[in-house]
């Protein structure tokens, strides 16, 4: 009897299984589908950089360049517009040189409605940086992070006043760093971004997703070259802009060191021949006959490997180091000449090139 009962149960189970497999619509009643958890707050699905903009935008100002009429010194008219960034509670503003280069008067408009005439502290054509100052209290200051290092792929926001439409924020990523081909002397490294930078954005802020200053917007590739391009814009790195500002505040202008050497990074093959300890060295291509390097005895084909006992890391690092030195400073440069390592002392002069 028990055997018959078990056989009947078994037959019933097999029959039920066959029916479930044959009729898919029955499965949902027997095996209910797993429920995907739904977010309790639909806003959590939205990606927003609102907090970054709220932190940075109040410190980005509109700048109006005014110039006297040629035939009437009593009349001022607005000749140009741009943007600037308040970087200090003392009222210092960083903008672009080309924004205020021809101005007889500079007017600054804050986002809270305040308007003030700005004092020109100093300007530097080579870096395209100018420093202004306004006198007021409770000024908004843009967040700054000296430890932030821009990386390709970082999300950035460009804030400025394009075409005098009012403050506008555009979005993109860092496309490249160290772009020097559009600079006046081919030496200054820019940040490249696909965030839109149009006329009037110049001097505005490029910020990261924390609202921290990444760079000073300077131009689109189209503005710099007159080629019709989109998605290629440039900004001056914050660290460089800040360094230039400090020099202008200290001296009223930028004093750069100069030794009169033109060089290029040595190839990887040459590095291996010289030994791995010389990776990062540069080969001297030319020496200014009237410069300090010529007086010190530098020659073309010398390979620079150290300055004051510290290894160098390519051409850009040497330019940055020498530029930051005060004229009159003596440095000791280790070079390889015809296979032998020698040390040459050289006294830094002031770079008077515009």
TrEMBL record:
It catalyses: Acts on substrates that are at least partially unfolded. The cleavage site P1 residue is normally between a pair of hydrophobic residues, such as Val-|-Val. The active site is at 98 (charge relay system), 128 (charge relay system), 202 (charge relay system). GO terms for molecular function: serine-type endopeptidase activity. Its EC number is 3.4.21.107. Keywords: Cell inner membrane, Cell membrane, Hydrolase, Membrane, Protease, Serine protease, Transmembrane, Transmembrane helix. One of its GO terms (cellular component) is periplasmic space. The keyword Amino-acid biosynthesis does not apply. It is an enzyme of class 3 (hydrolase). The keyword Membrane applies. Residues 258-314 form the PDZ domain. It is found in: Cell inner membrane. It comes from the Bacteria. Its main location: membrane. One of its GO terms (biological process) is protein quality control for misfolded or incompletely synthesized proteins. Pfam families: PDZ_2, Trypsin_2. It is a single-pass membrane protein. Belongs to the peptidase S1C family. Homotrimer. This is Serine endoprotease DegS. It comes from Vibrio ruber (strain DSM 16370 / JCM 11486 / BCRC 17186 / CECT 7878 / LMG 23124 / VR1). The gene is degS.
């Amino acid at each position: 009897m028990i055997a018959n009962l078990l056989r009947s149960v078994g037959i019933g189970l097999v029959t039920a299984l066959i029916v479930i497999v044959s009729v898919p619509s029955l499965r949902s009643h027997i095996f209910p589908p797993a429920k995907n958890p739904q977010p309790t707050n639909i806003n959590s699905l939205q990606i927003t950089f609102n907090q970054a903009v709220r932190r940075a935008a109040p410190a980005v100002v509109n700048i109006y360049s005014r110039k006297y009429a040629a035939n009437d010194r009593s009349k001022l008219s607005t000749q140009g517009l741009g943007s600037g960034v308040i970087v200090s509670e003392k009222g210092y503003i960083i903008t672009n040189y080309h924004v205020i280069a021809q101005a007889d008067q500079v007017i600054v408009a804050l986002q809270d409605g305040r308007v003030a005439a700005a004092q020109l502290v100093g300007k530097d054509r080579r870096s395209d940086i100018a420093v202004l100052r306004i006198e007021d209290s409770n000024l908004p200051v843009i967040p700054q992070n000296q430890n932030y290092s821009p990386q390709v792929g970082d999300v950035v926001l460009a804030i400025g006043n394009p075409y005098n439409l009012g403050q506008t924020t555009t979005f993109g990523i860092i496309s490249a760093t160290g772009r020097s081909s559009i600079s006046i002397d081919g030496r200054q490294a820019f940040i490249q971004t696909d965030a839109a930078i149009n006329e009037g954005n110049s001097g505005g802020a490029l910020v990261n997703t924390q609202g921290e200053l990444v760079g000073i917007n300077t131009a689109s590739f189209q503005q710099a070259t007159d080629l019709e391009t989109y998605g290629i814009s440039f900004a001056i790195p914050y660290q460089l802009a800040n360094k230039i500002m400090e020099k202008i505040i200290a001296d009223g202008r930028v004093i750069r060191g100069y030794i009169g050497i033109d060089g290029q990074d040595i190839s990887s093959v040459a590095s291996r021949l010289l030994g791995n300890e010389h990776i990062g060295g540069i080969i001297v291509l030319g020496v200014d006959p009237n410069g300090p390097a010529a007086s010190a005895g530098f020659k073309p084909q010398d390979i620079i490997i150290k300055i004051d006992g510290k290894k160098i890391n390519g051409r850009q690092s040497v330019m940055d180091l020498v530029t930051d030195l005060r004229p009159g400073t003596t440095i000791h440069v280790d070079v390889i000449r015809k296979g032998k390592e020698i040390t040459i002392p050289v006294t830094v002069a002031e770079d008077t090139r515009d």
